[in-house]
Amino acid sequence: MASSRLNSLVSFLVLSLAVSSTTAHENGTNTHKPVEKHVDVVVEGVVYCQSCDQYGTWPLTGAEPIESATVSIICKDHRNRVSFYKAFHTDNNGYFYAQLLGFKKSHALLDHPLHSCHVKLVSSPLENCNLLSNINYGLYGAPLRYEDKKLIGTNYEAVIYAAGPLAFRPAHCAPKEQP
Predict the structure, then answer these.
(1) pLDDT surpasses 60 at 23
(2) N or C terminus of the chain: which is more exposed, having fewer CB within 10 Å?
């Protein structure tokens, strides 16, 4: 007898909860607000020291990555005004991962990072390899490439663009021997 009363009570409570939650949802009194997803723009790339064997050309055969090199990311709006600028440093593998915190698009199509942002070489800590080169347009601004790379979390998404590779060149290279 006690068992049937307990079953009746549990059934009644479950049914009551189901009806009240359905009613609250139908009346629009659901207090849960959808969480807004945060989307970041990220630019990555590598900075090298071009070998003397490739001096005057774009190939990076024999190039070495530069630790602590500085690059800048500059974005301009559709009126050609600077809308974002920040300098970033490379890690010990010459790699930079630049999260563009504060980047905003004033026009959804015209201010897209692929069109409005460029990466420029700024400085190299190496005394023997600190001249700017224009490999992949690092001197005047390397364009970004979309390579379908994303980081996705519950309430976070990062769209990762690539630039470069970029390179500094040595100030002094031994003259090449003529055959």
Answers:
(1) no
(2) C
Angle in degrees, CA 41, 44, 49, rounded to 5: 155
**Measured between alpha carbons, how far is 50 from 57 in angstroms, rounded to an integer?**
9
Residue 134: exposure state from Cβ atoms within 10 A (0-12, 13-18, ≥19): middle
131 contacts 121 by C-beta, under 8 angstroms: no
Residue among 134, 123, 144, 14 at smallest CA distance from 71: 123
- Neighbouring CB atoms inside 10 A of 148's CB total 6
The CA-CA-CA angle for residues 179, 59, 145, to 5°, reads 170
Q: What is the mean pLDDT of the chain?
A: 79
